[in-house]
Design brief:
The complex is a heterodimer of chains A (212) and B (470). Chain A is built from four helices and four strands. By secondary structure, chain A is an alpha+beta fold. Chain A folds into two domains: 29 residues; 179 residues, no CATH class. In chain A, strands 1, 2, 3 and 4 form a four-stranded antiparallel sheet that branches. Chain A is elongated. The termini of chain A are far apart. Chain B is an alpha/beta fold. Chain B has three domains: 184 residues; 91 residues, Elongation Factor Tu (Ef-tu), domain 3 (Beta Barrel); 131 residues, Nucleotide-binding domain of ferredoxin-NADP reductase (FNR) module (Rossmann fold, 3-Layer(aba) Sandwich). Chain B has a five-stranded parallel sheet with strand order 9-8-7-10-11, sandwiched between helices. Chain B has a three-stranded antiparallel sheet with strand order 1-2-5. The chains are: A alpha+beta (212), B alpha/beta (470). Chains A and B meet through helix 1, helix 2 and helix 4 of A and helix 1, helix 2, helix 3 and helix 4 of B.
Chain lengths: 212, 470
């Protein structure tokens, strides 16, 4: 490179980096376990307090009220009403203990019970579905989530039905929940220092999404 | 040899000269380098915007941030390093094969160091968080996911590749052994990919970053696969290159003529070189670089090969009809780089072929071109008769300097008196300072010639030399 170009490029480079640093120098923009301790879980304004963290160790859940995990009352909604539009439910994970219960929220418009086997025309967009319990094989943790969608198929809440993690990794769950909410699925990056927890959470999430 | 015996290409009627040409090349180089630089800035900036530094709260998180940053920079540089040896024409036209190869070599060690820094930072970070010692943590990480295990394989491969490429190792290893080991670098790059997307925090779920990395991988991979592998095969099948004639041009050199279909489609210029692969069971995987020793024409391309032991001895005993593959043409040792009316061509020993081709095809009035040919023995100097014939036809000044070197620091044969090389050069070629100089010979010898030119006060813009660095 000629000297003038080198100077210009160098200056621009430094400028871009300085601006980037400034932009990035607000807390909680990235996803990392350590920063997550103070992370307030971003919630859609219409549904305050929907995200529940039932992890006994997870005290740092940013002010959301820990509500005991939803009832596992068997639903009347038949399993045959399988959604054809379930967004982002791409993976069908190998679930060792598939739970076949759905727990509709009060707001949810339950799809009409259709006993026919070929009912692709009645997509059950809204509702709450609980995924499988996923063991995180390395550190002895586990996670099971329930997902709530509104009538337009948007994920509005992700609840932890059961969860445990060791070594400070439980702090990853709020970060994972908010990441999954904003990604509307499991397509988001790793939470630093909680690789296995992230993988387990994604599997748990996918298994719940697969039920819509 | 008679002038009638050699076939001479007709030079172009005119050529554009002047410093504007040089400036255009420099400008294009600047653009390419700025784009390369911008990719590095982009990955660092995206890391910063993502809060890479803001998230640092303790030692493990600092290590994590360092690990992310080094990973991003190293991967970007690694891909730049790959494109440098992808033999892409758009880079070769600007820099020449030798300079891209040198840049590739220069990047080798720094990239490895950055990758090792990334590995150590992640390892210590994980170890601190798990309260384990780092050796135990290696096994924990390797068991964590297959992707991390693969990335360890990638790191090991990369270390082996760099160690076998440092100077001392290169001197002890045969080219073939080095080459086979170097193929591991493809393994290294590919094996590292999964963990970047699954364990890494900077790609998955980030549309801009995902697009950037996928585009970069596809761009580099596409260029590499097409230009380095597929295009030469396609050209070989199209042209069906075969050896058509072999002719000894001195006791230890031979000219190899290669013909085929539609030879006029080849884009080679005098001064460029091809990588020649002899398509026999034993030879096909070992390409050798050879400069054209005659300006290309519609019937053949010609190389003149010296006996350097190894495979070049075999080359001289090729059978007519042997199939060959030509990769190239490469190099910027051509008239495209000429900015002045006068030209001085300087060569020694088996550096003569491209000089011979340039002498044949450069645009010149009688007296414009001076050729200096250093030989050990005029009776056994490759292509000397041809240079002589060309000079007579075209009106070039040919100066043949015969004999052993005056001393190890001199590029000229011993003469009378104790005049320094650069002063003798001015006597031999009075026009030299106002000419473009093209030098081809052994590397150390080339350096001494360049030194003389600098002593004459000549600008680097006037000096053109190409090394067979590969």
């Amino acid at each position: 490179m000629r000297v003038a170009t080198k100077l210009a490029t160098g200056l621009m480079g430094v400028g871009v980096l300085a601006v980037s640093f400034k932009l990035g120098n607000v807390p909680n923009t990235g996803m990392s376990l350590t920063a997550s301790q103070s992370t307030a879980v971003a919630l859609p304004p219409a549904n305050p307090g929907v995200i529940t963290v039932t992890d006994p160790n997870g005290g740092e859940d940013g002010g959301t009220n820990p509500i005991p995990s939803p009832s596992t009352a068997p639903s009347s909604a038949p399993k045959a009403t399988k959604s054809t539009k379930a967004p982002r439910a791409t993976k069908s994970p190998k679930t060792p203990t598939p739970k076949k219960t759905t727990t509709p929220t009060p707001k949810a418009t339950t799809p009409p019970a259709n006993t026919g086997g070929t009912t692709q025309t009645t997509p059950s967009l809204a509702g709450t579905k609980t995924g499988s319990l996923i063991q995180e094989p390395r550190w002895g943790g586990y996670v099971q989530v329930s997902v709530t969608k509104n009538a337009s198929g948007k994920i509005i809440a992700i609840n932890l039905v059961q969860s445990a993690a060791t070594g400070g990794r439980q702090g990853a769950f709020p970060v994972l929940q908010s990441a999954a909410l904003s990604a509307q699925g499991s397509n988001f990056g790793n939470v630093g220092s909680a690789t296995y927890t992230t993988q387990a959470f994604k599997q748990a999430l996918d298994s719940a999404l697969a039920k819509f | 040899m008679n002038t009638q015996d050699i076939r001479l290409a007709k030079p172009a009627a005119k050529i554009r000269l002047g410093i504007g040409k040089y400036n255009r090349v420099k400008r294009a180089q600047d653009v390419v380098e700025m784009v390369g630089f911008a990719t590095v800035i982009f990955v660092i900036a995206s890391f910063l915007i993502d809060g890479g530094l803001a998230n640092i709260t303790d030692i493990p998180s600092a290590l994590g941030a360092f690990s992310r940053l080094t990973a991003l920079v190293a991967t970007d540089l690694l891909l730049i390093q790959m494109i440098l040896v992808a033999r892409v024409p758009w880079l070769d036209r600007l820099y020449g094969h030798d300079r891209t190869t040198i840049a590739h070599k220069k990047l080798g060690k720094p990239v490895l160091y950055i990758i090792i820094a990334h590995f150590l930072a992640s390892l210590i970070q994980y170890a601190m968080q798990d309260g384990k010692n780092i050796f135990a943590e290696i096994f924990v990480m390797a068991n964590l996911t297959t992707d991390l295990l693969l990335s360890f394989v990638a790191l090991a491969a990369m270390i082996i590749v760099v160690i076998t490429s440092i100077k001392i190792a290169r001197a002890k290893l045969s080219y073939e052994a080095w080459y086979l080991v170097h193929l591991l670098s493809y393994v290294a790059v590919l094996a590292a990919v999964p963990h970047e997307f699954s364990v890494g925090q900077d790609v998955a779920g980030k549309p801009l970053q995902s697009a950037f990395w996928i585009a970069l991988y596809v761009f580099v991979g596409g260029n590499l696969v097409w230009f380095r592998f597929l295009q030469p095969i396609v050209k070989m099948l199209q042209h069906r290159f075969t050896v058509t004639k072999i002719h000894a041009s001195s006791s230890d050199t031979a000219s190899i003529y290669i013909g085929g279909k539609n030879m006029h489609d080849l884009t080679a210029k005098a001064g460029q070189f091809y990588l020649l692969r002899i398509m026999t069971a034993k030879q096909w995987w070992r390409p050798h670089p050879f400069s054209l020793s005659a300006a290309p024409n519609e019937d053949y391309v010609r190389f003149t090969v010296g006996d350097r032991g190894d495979d070049t001895a075999l080359m001289q005993n090729l059978k007519v009809g042997t199939k060959v593959m030509l990769e190239g043409p490469y190099g910027v040792f051509t008239e495209d780089r000429r900015t002045k009316e006068k030209v001085t061509l300087i060569c020694a020993g088996i550096g003569v072929p491209p000089i011979r081709a340039l002498a044949e095809s450069m645009v010149a009035k009688p007296g414009d071109i001076t050729i200096i040919y250093r030989t050990r023995d005029n009776d056994d100097a490759a292509l000397l008769h041809e240079l002589d014939a060309i000079s007579r036809v075209r009106g070039h000044e040919l100066r043949v300097l015969e004999g052993p070197r005056a001393n190890p620091k001199s590029w000229l044969p011993s003469g009378h008196g104790n005049i320094p090389d650069f002063q003798r050069l001015r006597l031999i070629a009075p026009n030299v300072t106002e000419s473009d100089v093209f030098i081809c010979g052994p590397v150390a010898w080339t350096r001494t010639v360049e030194k003389s030119l600098h002593q004459l006060g000549m600008s680097p813009k006037q000096i053109h030399a190409e090394e067979f660095a590969w």
